[in-house]
Every structure is written in C-alpha cells, then in structure tokens.
Amino acid sequence: MITRIIGIDPGSQRTGYGVIEVNQNELIYVASGVVKLPKIGLPLRLKTIFDGVNKVICQYQPTELGIEEVFTSKNSGSALKLGQARGAAIVAAANAGLEISEYSARTIKKSIVGGGAASKDQVQKMVVRLLKLDDVPPEDAADGLAVAICHGYSRRAIKFLAKSESGRFSRGRYK
User: Fold this and answer.
1) Per-residue pLDDT averaged across 118-146, rounded?
2) Is 121 labeled as catalytic in the residue annotation?
C-alpha cells in the first residue's frame, strides 16, 4: 500500500515542506518547496503558514504529517515564534484529518545521515541520494523532505513492532 507523507520544517521566516510516497521499502519524491513569509507582523505570518500548508495538503492529498519539534534555544523569543509556526502547520494538518507525528532535529538527522549532529549540507546530500533527485532542493525544502523521510522510516518500525509476537508494543508505544 502506498502512503503519502508531508514533512514540515517550520520557521517564522520560511517553512519548508516535502511530500513523498512510501511504497513498502521505496521512497518516492512527489514535491517540495518553501512557504515564504512576508515581513509583516507575526499573526499574519502564522496565517500565511496555515494557508500555505493547507494549500499543499489540498494539492497533494497526504494522509500523514511529520513535523520537526521545537528545539531548545538560547533565545526564548525565537523558540516561542517557532512554536507558534509549528502550531499553525499542525492545525492545518489536523483540520485535514492527517495523522501527525513529531520528531526532534537530532532524530531526523540520525535517520537520514546516521548521526544526530549532521550538518545541513550532509542532510541535503542524503535527501538527494535517498530520493534519487537530479538537483539539490533548497535548504528548507530539503529539511521538509528529511522530516518526511524520517517519518516514513519511523512508521515502518512502529508498525513492525506493533505486529511483534510479544504483544508488548501497541500503536508505537512501549507498554
């Protein structure tokens, strides 16, 4: 069964997205891009994120969303704005009925590159390799694709563990 996933790399200046399909062990590129935010007040930027993510969801019809979690920042104001940007994207996905999963930046990097401290350049190169792309997508779009790939890998592992004979795993949560 083919599953279509959207990955979101939220930001208060640019929000990257990537859409992939997962068909058993195959990752298939569908689309990627960036929701660019005008230099206006935060409430209107949040509306732009909501509208942009909603438009991508309507256009590509994913059934699942992976999104990067807020990382702890030295600047609490930036962390709050990032959290609000995430919220706008999550509400768009929730309104569309998508299954939503969240991943730390470290988990995303580890699933794509093999190490949680990977550079943005390493992530971009692995996204190109994993999706067999001809060109390197812009940084924010590559990050959105990385989130989608991470979710694609994670959902397979969760489903595998949920089917384990021991019965100790249920819906991806260890009991």
Assistant:
1) 95
2) no
